[in-house]
Amino acid sequence: MKRDSRLSSVLHALLHMAAFDRPMTSDALAQCMRTHPVVVRRTMAGLREAGIVRSEKGHHGGWVISADLSRITLRDIHEALGEPAIFAMGHRNDNPSCLVEQAVNARLGDAFDEAEKLLMERFSGVTLAEIAKEFTARYPKERLETHTHGT
């Protein structure tokens, strides 16, 4: 089962952008995210609409973070990505009139709703600044520039 890793990929790119501290092109971000520049532009468009990033035109242009890292939460980024489904599991709806299926779906639905609510609460309490701080603590300053260019 394929997992949706967009949130993780976008966080990776945003942390590179924060560390790089100047515009990054879609090509450079595509290397960070290990994807195609078109995917980067599509993804960044949602983040731009949410006020998280902006694009700068010109020779030294590219994408930059436009919001205060301490005000951007994981939930903000999740919502900017279009609120992708949290769980790959779902209800079986082969026979909606089946009473067993109805009972199972009701219990699963309650559990999924509670789990998603808890996760969104946790996402609301984690800022990009906190993750960036952890990232910079893991990398000595002299390696930061190399890492930003390499991955």
TrEMBL record:
Cellular component annotations (GO), alphabetically ordered: cytosol
Superkingdom assignment: Bacteria
GO molecular function, one term: DNA-binding transcription factor activity
PANTHER family reported for this sequence: HTH-TYPE TRANSCRIPTIONAL REGULATOR YWGB-RELATED, WINGED HELIX-TURN-HELIX TRANSCRIPTIONAL REGULATOR, RRF2 FAMILY
Designated name of the protein: Transcriptional regulator, BadM/Rrf2 family
The organism of origin for this protein: Pelagibacterium luteolum
